[in-house]
Write a structure and sequence with these properties.
Strand content: 15-25%
Number of helices: 5
Oligomer: single chain
Length: 186
């Protein structure tokens, strides 16, 4: 009996993982298409919005509580999304990512219980391009909580796969150096 329950549990877990994987790949595809067509991130259904997370919440009730800190971080992410998105659109323009480009693939890495780092690949007639973002799983929903502010060009898919985390790694390294420069980490 325990063996049957274990098998059912593993099977159910694998189905749930498969559904999450499919959703992340779908979000990657839609985000890529949104970048190719230069959509406004404020109109994108997967962009983090506090009102989506807490549709009926009175935020004033969180004053001077640990929840206020978390809300502040989420609000900061929400405010930074359009800034980073606009930088991605400018870079996509400079790299000639246009209607002749198309979605190619999504790669992701789970970080913690509800966070994912995602790298999407765009195929143009002669090159591949990547951009990256973070996803936050909130109950049954998934939202983009951060865009990394770079788009990179590669000549082959092999080169892409060798450098999947380079945008994320480089931006985090740059942020750490800036904090060290400002004496935050000393």
């Amino acid at each position: 009996m325990k063996l049957i329950l274990l098998i059912i549990s593993l099977f159910t877990h694998n189905i749930l993982l498969s559904q999450i994987n499919t959703r992340i790949e779908d979000i990657g595809k839609k985000t890529t298409e949104f970048l190719i067509h230069r959509g406004k991130i404020e109109d994108f259904k997967y962009a983090l919005k506090l009102k989506s997370l807490f549709p009926k919440e009175d935020f004033s009730s969180f004053k001077d509580s640990p929840a206020e800190f978390v809300l502040g971080m989420l609000r900061g992410s929400e405010l930074e999304l359009p800034v980073a998105w606009n930088e991605l659109k400018v870079k996509a323009n400079k790299l000639n990512i246009d209607a002749n480009s198309s979605y190619h693939e999504t790669y992701f890495d789970k970080k913690g219980s509800d966070n994912y780092v995602v790298t999407c690949v765009i195929k143009s007639p002669s090159d591949y391009f990547t951009f990256s973002f973070n996803l936050l799983q909130w109950e049954k929903d998934i939202y983009i909580s951060r865009f990394y502010k770079d788009v990179r060009r590669y000549k082959s898919i092999k080169e892409v796969k060798t450098n999947l985390s380079s945008i994320v790694d480089d931006e985090i390294e740059k942020e750490i150096q800036e904090m060290e420069k400002e004496n935050y980490l000393q």
